[in-house]
Specification:
The protein is α/β, with parallel strands linked by helices. It is built from twelve helices and ten strands. The longest helix has 19 residues. It is globular and about 65 Å long.
Length: 309
């Protein structure tokens, strides 16, 4: 059973309600039909002009209280709640849905802002970031071709503490959604001192912080990607690695590397890229690439539903 089939099966095990606030997009409407037909989740489908006025006012007042310290007034809150993204996020915050998925017709910054402002950042993690679940056909690396790549969509140049938190939150995602033991690699252009540079120092500091924050986490770095995922290369370049070339969670040094890396693998290896999944928040949600397929939306809903279980 491939990883996508496993994810959908796990979502079906305990039905959750997921909001899709982009009804105007035909891919979203088609995905909703598949999700309902296969019993992956219960879908709440709507868009601009379809919002419940009473709920909109209720959510606006909640949002005003939430964001009042940042200087917004009630009229600002009401205006924000005219946006289906904010309505969906406040539904999730209030427990009227278990999670939301958007981004087919909105940019990642738009989705991320609504999610962060409405759901709030998990105090344990202290930063919101994003990742992709990568499912690579006919691949023996990672977890039988399954990987988590992070961060690929939100944090442009994470500092060491942010990288450590990104590593920990994505390790948690690997356990919860994929049901695997996370093996986390902090990636660079160097393997254990084979080169020098600011980025290498950053990854080493992130490693130390992650180990301090979660001592039982199986994590190593700095590693070149071949030393992280290919056992034969790991044996040559770093035979004492804790990961032994079997990493399944790859943490990139910055957004450029992460975004380029996932798109290369997606297109050249014909991989399924599920996400961007937003992690580090108090409630589950997922972004979508604006180039997503109907099946991508179905899979993001399945992941979000599992996280809500």
């Amino acid at each position: 059973m491939d990883i996508v089939t496993k994810i959908r099966a796990r979502a079906k095990a305990k039905l959750k309600t997921i909001t899709l606030p982009e009804v105007e997009d035909i891919r979203v409407r088609e995905a909703a039909k598949i999700i309902e037909r296969e019993g992956i989740a219960k879908v709440l489908l709507f868009g601009r002009g379809m919002l419940d006025k009473a709920k909109q006012e209720e959510y606006a007042k909640m949002y005003y209280e939430l964001r009042k310290p940042q200087g917004i007034n009630l009229d600002d809150a009401r205006k924000s709640l005219e946006n289906p993204l904010y309505y969906a996020a406040m539904m999730t915050r209030n427990g009227d849905s278990d999670g939301f998925v958007a981004g087919a017709s909105h940019t990642t910054p738009d989705v991320a802002r609504a999610a962060i402002r409405c759901l709030g950042v998990d105090e344990r993690i202290s930063i919101a970031s994003s990742c992709f679940l990568m499912s690579i056909p006919d691949c023996s690396y990672g977890e039988e071709g399954a990987f988590i790549f992070a961060d690929c969509g939100i944090v442009p140049d994470p500092n060491p503490r942010q990288l450590a938190c990104i590593a920990i939150s994505n390790a948690e995602l690997a356990r919860r959604v994929l049901g695997i033991t996370p093996k986390v690699a902090l990636l660079s252009y160097s393997t254990k001192g084979s080169a020098k540079g600011r980025v290498i120092d950053k990854m080493l500091e992130a490693l130390a912080l992650a180990k301090q924050m979660q001592p039982d986490l199986l994590i190593d770095g700095e590693l070149q990607v071949d030393a992280a995922i290919v056992p034969e290369v790991a044996e040559i370049k770093y035979p004492n690695s804790l990961l032994a070339g079997k990493a399944n969670v790859l943490i990139f040094p910055n957004l450029e590397a992460g975004n380029i890396g996932y798109k290369l693998v997606q297109r050249l290896a014909r991989a399924r890229a599920i996400g961007p999944i937003i992690v580090g928040l108090n409630k589950p949600c997922s972004d979508l690439s604006r180039g997503c397929s109907t099946e991508d939306i179905v899979d993001c809903v399945a992941v979000t539903a599992i996280r809500a279980q």
